[in-house]
Amino acid sequence: MSCKQASRLISQQEDFPLPGWKRLLLRLHLAACDGCTRFARQIAVLREAMARYRT
Amino acid sequence: MTPAEFATAAEAHRAYLMRVAVLQLRDRDTAADVVQDTLVAALAGQASFTGRSTLKTWLTGILKHKIVDAIRQRQRQPVALATLGDELDLDDFDSLFNDRGAWDEPPADWGDPESALGRGQFISILDLCLDRLPPNTARVFVMREVMELESDEICKELAITANNLWVILYRARMSLRMCLEQNGFTGAA
């Protein structure tokens, strides 16, 4: 899995459940990739930011 | 809270409600009408505000229904795929990755949400960045992240496929994170 693919899945899983095997592959990628781990955290911050925006 | 106090408290959220409505409806006049209807409904329904959520959240809930009604009155204009055009383009973000698909520049460390959002001004930077989203993208992103509609509800409402939806939301998030970083929202402690 490339970072490009991982970034798409990280976004996708916010809105659609990922099939088990994709989740696993993503987990494996994240375990080995600092960049994507940081990206996932950015997406989490963005989500939290929107939650605060609406409350 | 007296009706007058409640009215004042609700009115204080008018600007926020307008921002959300304009992002969704794109037409300021319709947005203004919808916000007005929302505030009127809120005042009439003061008794049903239990305080279990914040006033802002409660108002957002009313706004969501008024927006949906407004969209339906416009014949629920499904987003014609032809108008989505560039907003379905995944290639725009290819430049962030090298030819092996790895990050060209690794994303910055924003830290955990609590500390990241504790740094001042993030709402105004976020506002700026939301404004920069192209219209359909903004609409979809707001439906998901502010109105908190489920993915299938959004697809049904806008007559788009799940595939369209993930692409649009991916683009929105990629654009927003880039914009946030460019406008000073970094992981720098």
Q: Your description of this structure?
A:
The complex is a heterodimer of chains A (55) and B (189). Chain A is mainly alpha-helical and 55 residues long. Chain A contains three helices and no strands. Chain A starts with a helix and ends with a helix. The model of chain A has no long low-confidence stretch (mean pLDDT 94). Chain B folds into two domains: 73 residues, Rna Polymerase Sigma Factor, Chain: A, CATH 1.10.1740; 99 residues, Arc Repressor Mutant, subunit A (Orthogonal Bundle). The interface between A and B is large, with 30 and 43 residues.
Q: How much is the average pLDDT of chain A?
A: 94
**Whole-Å distance between the termini of chain B?**
41 Å
Give the fraction of residues assigned to helices of chain B.
55-70%
Number of helices of chain B: 10
Order of helices and strands of chain A: HHH
Please give a quick description of this structure.
Chain A has 55 residues and is mostly helical.
List the SSEs and their pairings.
The complex is a heterodimer of chains A (55) and B (189).
Chain A: H1 3-12, H2 20-32, H3 34-54
Helix pairs in contact in A: 1-2, 1-3, 2-3
Chain B: H1 3-11, H2 14-25, H3 28-44, H4 55-73, H5 81-84, H6 113-118, H7 122-132, H8 135-145, H9 151-158, H10 162-182
Provide tags for this entry.
heterodimer, A: 55 residues, mainly alpha, 3 helices, globular, B: 189 residues, Rna Polymerase Sigma Factor, Chain: A, Arc Repressor Mutant, subunit A, 10 helices
